[in-house]
Write a structure and sequence with these properties.
By secondary structure, the protein is of the alpha/beta class. The chain has ten helices and ten strands. The strands form four sheets. The chain has a four-stranded mixed β-sheet, with helices on both faces. Strands 1-6 form a two-stranded parallel sheet. A two-stranded parallel ribbon has the order 7-8. Strand 9 and strand 10 form a beta hairpin. The chain starts with 7 loop residues before the first helix and ends with a strand.
Length: 248
């Protein structure tokens, strides 16, 4: 920790991701690369491809002063979205319907003193990579601003594998606050980076999908899409065996 400036767990994750990237470049498929790298599956490989970096207290206080944000409108599998990127990573990714003025106003409200440069071509390129079934060649870096409590919740969200769901209560426990389900739900709703910080994977204790900052229908569509890419054993269709019986 003193020499590398990282915990042993973080250091091991860097080595694991580096090894998995080499395997992918050599032609291995995602599942084989994940297992060969010592991961439980492709969902875990995806988790290691996202790193979250918090804005410093000074940056939060400065409200974006001296910062340049490249922003642009792009088309995703789930509708139009607005992506914002600072030199330190993606700082905003939101879906919107209709005019993009409201989405841009939301980005400006988060970083009111930042200089915003419109680059739709760059945004479209990034969005196509984000929603590609294949993992990225390097980790996605996210530049977020939030309270320490929000950051704990958002980091807990990154531990939810694609194709799986968690309740608000379970997420609160995972974030170290088992009695703070309501506050956890508020932190989930405050997430400004859709999909990459997967708040869509959180549902109510009753099993109901629940609300979503960018629309309940869009949430269900994202979950269905993810489940098709990362099916659990219970979701896989039965296949006929050579002996005429059926197996999962």
């Amino acid at each position: 920790s003193a020499w590398a400036g990282a915990t042993p767990k973080d250091f091991l994750q860097c080595l694991t991701l580096s090894h998995a990237r080499e395997l992918l470049r050599a032609g291995e498929n995602v599942l084989s690369a994940a297992l060969e790298a010592g991961l439980s599956g492709p969902g875990r490989l995806h988790d290691l491809c996202v790193s979250l970096e918090a804005a410093t207290p000074g940056e939060i206080k400065a409200r974006g002063a001296g910062m340049t944000i490249s922003a642009g409108v792009a088309t995703s599998p789930f509708g139009n979205c607005l992506l914002g990127e600072t030199p330190r990573g993606i700082c905003h990714l939101s879906f919107f319907d209709g005019n993009d003025d409201a989405a841009l106003a939301e980005l400006k409200a988060d970083w009111p003193l930042a200089e915003i440069v419109i680059d739709n071509e760059r945004a479209q390129k990034l969005v196509e990579q984000i929603f590609s079934p294949a993992p990225p060649s390097s980790p996605w870096k996210l530049h977020v601003r939030g309270t320490p409590f929000q950051l704990r919740v958002w980091r807990a969200l990154l531990d939810i594998a694609p194709g799986t769901l968690v309740s608000y209560g379970k997420l609160a426990s995972h974030a170290g606050n088992p009695n703070a389900s309501r506050a956890t739900g508020t932190a989930v709703g405050s997430n400004a980076i859709s999909y990459l910080i997967p708040c869509h994977r959180v549902i109510r204790e009753t099993g109901i999908s629940g609300n979503y900052r960018w629309g309940a229908i869009r949430k269900r569509a994202i979950l269905a899409w993810e489940c098709s890419l990362h099916p659990s054993p219970s979701q896989r269709q039965a296949e006929p065996s050579p002996h005429g019986t059926r197996r999962l």
